[in-house]
Design a protein that fits this description.
Layout (H helix, E strand, L loop, with lengths): L11 H11 L6 E2 L16 H13 L12 H12 L8 E6 L1 H16 L5 E5 L3 H9 L4 E5 L1 E2 L4 E2 L1 H8 L7 E5 L12 H14 L2 E6 L8 H4 L1 H9 L3 E6 L12 E6 L5 H15 L6 H11 L1 H33 L6 H4 L4 E3 L4 H11 L1 E2 L5 E3 L7 H14 L1
Parallel strand pairs: 1-12, 3-4, 3-7, 7-8, 8-9
Antiparallel strand pairs: 2-10, 5-6, 9-10, 11-13
Helix pairs in contact: 2-11, 2-12, 3-11, 4-5, 7-9, 11-12, 12-15, 14-15
The protein binds pyridoxal-5'-phosphate and (2S)-2-hydroxy-3-(4-hydroxyphenyl)propanoic acid (TYF).
GO cellular component, one term: cytosol
GO molecular function: identical protein binding; L-aspartate:2-oxoglutarate aminotransferase activity; L-tyrosine-2-oxoglutarate transaminase activity; pyridoxal phosphate binding
Pfam family, one: Aminotran_1_2
Length: 394
């Protein structure tokens, strides 16, 4: 049986981790996988997470199964963090999931159950796992234009023209903030137009919210999600705690389904059913830490302060990099780096130039020229800018 299996294509982002590890050169720079790194290159455990873990160890009395939907207190705390009362509680169903990826996967399975023929519209480009999961589930898919490579901004006209083709009952997958891989995001006025286009089409948004707190702050980063949730009859939200709590390997996420209050019990039952079919109970450790932090005033304040440090560090690096690129290349073409938000920017280099960065300069970024801003520090910003200027000269 196993001999019938065909090799699967590797995840190009995860492949870079291995390539970087095997590179013996001193001074190599890892701008690949989307993991936050502090100025010393470490991905720290956040202070509030450490404190919650200690408290959990001291107070936890059982490890018996949690509920199929996870611990109700986790779901309540996350719904509050994301929606802040933007929709009535009796319209909201939710399940804890293994990470944001688990939430995306469950959302797409729910869509396939509820609307088997519906097309899922995906931004071009998007996080590669969106494409592979949709394809794996056999869901019809279309792309909408998103990124203007010439300006590094959202191709808003292209996006709106494509969203005008969306049919009633289709699903539009959106990045709630900090678009991966481009770093370009709609402004609040554009979000309103996107919301209106989805309403006019009679479509359902699926919002992937993996970076709340990494862009313009916890509240601003949730603003588009809250807008869509408050204006549209049905909204799905797949959120991750991996980045903003720095608990990547704990696999902590949530799927939120908003609809008519009269359908909430059945929707919740279907979410629970999907959890049971796929893994029964969701992981609890990370969810418990998140709950303890969000429900405790002091821990929550400390978490918010540290998250803000993380966000501002990335913003400073963006500014420094935009300036260094201007100085080294003598052009403004990379000014968008300072406008982008989140961990990533797509520089608009060719695959050959990205390859040359790796071979000649030991700089690792994803083949589409996406770089992880948090992989930089004050010392490596000028090194990267010089390397980019060098590969542009050919
Ligand atoms: N969605 C997007 C756009 C992402 O970039 C990520 C990656 O971090 C995720 C979802 C899910 O992350 P995780 O499954 O690690 O929570
Ligand atoms: O895009 C990234 O780098 C992050 C991390 O299969 C990631 O979202 C990358 C690949 C993957 C899962 C997570």
């Amino acid at each position: 049986m196993l001999t019938a299996l065909k090799p699967q294509p590797a995840d190009k982002i995860l492949q870079l981790i291995q390539m970087f590890r095997e590179d013996p050169r001193d001074g190599k720079i890892d701008l690949g996988v989307g993991v936050y790194k502090d100025p010393t290159g470490l991905t720290p455990v956040m202070r509030a997470v450490k404190a919650a873990e200690k408290r959990l160890w001291e107070t936890e009395t059982t490890k018996t199964y949690t509920g199929l939907a996870g611990e109700p207190a986790y779901n309540a705390a996350m719904v509050e963090l994301i929606l802040a009362g933007a929709v009535a509680a009796d319209r909201v169903a939710s399940v804890a999931t293994p990470g944001g990826t688990g939430a995306v996967r469950q959302a797409l399975e729910l869509i396939r159950m509820a609307a088997p023929g519906a097309t899922v519209w995906i931004s071009n480009p998007t996080w590669p796992n969106h494409l592979t999961i949709v394809k794996y589930l056999g869901i019809p898919m279309q792309e909408y234009r998103y990124f203007d490579a010439a300006t590094g901004a959202v191709d808003f006209d292209g996006m709106m023209a494509d969203l005008a083709q969306v049919k009633a009952g289709d699903v539009v997958l959106l990045h709630g903030c900090c678009h991966n891989p481009t770093g370009a995001n709609p402004n609040p006025v554009q979000w309103l137009a996107i919301c209106e286009a989805i309403a006019k089409a009679g479509a359902v948004p699926l919002i992937d919210l993996a970076y709340q707190g990494f862009g313009d702050g916890l509240e601003m980063d949730a603003a588009a999600t809250r807008l869509l949730a408050s204006k549209l009859p049905e909204v799905l939200i797949a959120a991750s705690c991996s980045k903003n709590f720095g608990i990547y390997r704990e696999r902590t996420g949530i799927l939120i389904a908003i609809g008519e209050a009269s359908g909430r019990v059945v929707t919740q039952g279907n979410l629970n059913f999907l959890n049971r079919q796929n893994f029964s109970f969701p992981p609890d450790h990370g969810a418990r830490l998140v709950t303890m932090i969000l429900d405790d005033e002091a821990l929550c304040a400390d978490w918010k302060a540290e998250l803000e440090e993380v966000r501002l560090n990335m913003l400073t690096l963006r500014q420094l990099l935009a300036e260094a690129l201007r100085a080294e290349t003598g052009s403004d073409r990379f000014g968008f780096v300072a406008e982008h938000r989140g961990m990533f920017s797509r520089l608009g280099l060719t695959p050959e130039q990205v390859e040359k960065l790796r071979t000649d300069h030991a700089v690792y970024m994803v083949g589409d020229s996406r770089l992880n801003i948090a992989g930089l520090n004050r010392t490596t910003v000028p090194v990267l800018a010089r390397a980019v200027a060098d590969v542009l000269r050919g």
